Amino acid sequence: MTKTSDLIVSTSVARHVRLLTLNRKSKRNALSNDMIADLGATLRDAAIDKDVRCVVLCGSDAFFSAGADIKEMRERGFEAIDNSARRSAWRDVANFPKPLIAAVEGICFGGGHELALLADIVIAGEGAVFGQPEINIGILPGDGATQRLTRVAGKSLAMLMILSGQSITARIAMQAGLVAEVVESGRAQIRALEIADLIAQKPPRSAELAKAAVLAAFQTTLDAGLEFERQAIRFAFSTADQQEGMSAFFEKRPPNYRGN
């Protein structure tokens, strides 16, 4: 099944896996307010769709996204990147409860990089480049990079990228923890879908709980995070899928997870 908005193409590519494609190629997938709104709405739908267990987000072979829409910023100024609708859409992305994988080829700059930072797993093609070049037009990142990039990659690299506008290669991004795997150029989407298929075979509630527990490590203290983990696994033990997984293990058969 394929659903197409003007800016986001949503395709069911495998059982329980949804592929979302950024579809503004003439603008190198620049993240306009309309595009972010479409992405947020599409992820809201995927969040409540019981058939969706994992989502892969991709751009094109030449660019994931070149960043925010500079034309909008020139016309609307600060309000172009700081308005209630855009903030709400970014929250929909950040709060998406299911595993989200970004397949990155080519340019991944500015708001596009900030979007990739919201993915749970990033798979990059060898030729991918990552950057926060906002300082080159007299501003700074405004969709989360000063906070998320610093938490993931550390102060020194975040400062280098943000203060100089200098981009980094996929290999350096992997060394810094921004990328999980680097694959041959043109194969990022293929590899991301392989991982998504693997995740989609796991119990969906446990996957959502595990995602939330890992994210808690970035958002709270160690003690609070450990308590969150305990409560999450306590809930997992109450699910029918946990009983199915345990039974399948001892019966030496594939489990049949139903999401309950």
Automatic annotation (TrEMBL):
Keywords from the named record: Lyase
Any Gene Ontology biological process: fatty acid beta-oxidation
GO molecular function: hydro-lyase activity
Protein name, entry field: Enoyl-CoA hydratase
PROSITE patterns noted in UniProt: ENOYL_COA_HYDRATASE
InterPro entries named among the record's database cross-references: ClpP/crotonase-like_dom_sf, Enoyl-CoA_hyd/isom_CS, Enoyl-CoA_hydra/iso, Enoyl-CoA_hydra_C
Pfam families tied to this protein: ECH_1 (PF00378)
PANTHER family: ENOYL-COA HYDRATASE, MITOCHONDRIAL, ENOYL-COA HYDRATASE-RELATED
Source species: Bradyrhizobium shewense
Family, per entry: Belongs to the enoyl-CoA hydratase/isomerase family.
